[in-house]
Amino acid sequence: SPFHDGTMPNWFHEHCIWAKAKINTAGDISNLENLEWEDQEKIRKKIESADTTDPSTSGDGKKSRKRPNSQVYKDYQ
C-alpha cells in the first residue's frame, strides 16, 4: 500500500462487480475461495441465474447519439 505497511484490499461491492466485470463462470473470479462461504454461494447463484446486470446501474437502453462524420472536425476547418 502506498499509505501504510500492509496490503491493500481489492474487492468490489456485491452490486458493483456485475457492472464492472463480465463474469460468466465462477472461475472468472480470482480468489473466490478466499471469500466467506455465504458470499461464494451468492455469487454462484447470481452466475447460474445469468442475471448479472444490476438494474440500478444499467442505462436506459437507448443508443448514444453521435455527431455525423461531417461535423466531427468542423472546428478545425
TrEMBL record:
PROSITE patterns: ZF_PARP_2 (PS50064). Residues 1-51 form the PARP-type domain. InterPro entries: Znf_PARP, Znf_PARP_sf. Keywords: Metal-binding, Nucleus, Zinc, Zinc-finger. Residues 45-77 are annotated as: Disordered. The keyword Phosphoprotein does not apply. It is found in: Nucleus. GO terms for cellular component: nucleus. GO terms for molecular function: DNA binding; zinc ion binding. Residues 50-59 have a biased composition (Polar residues). This is PARP-type domain-containing protein.
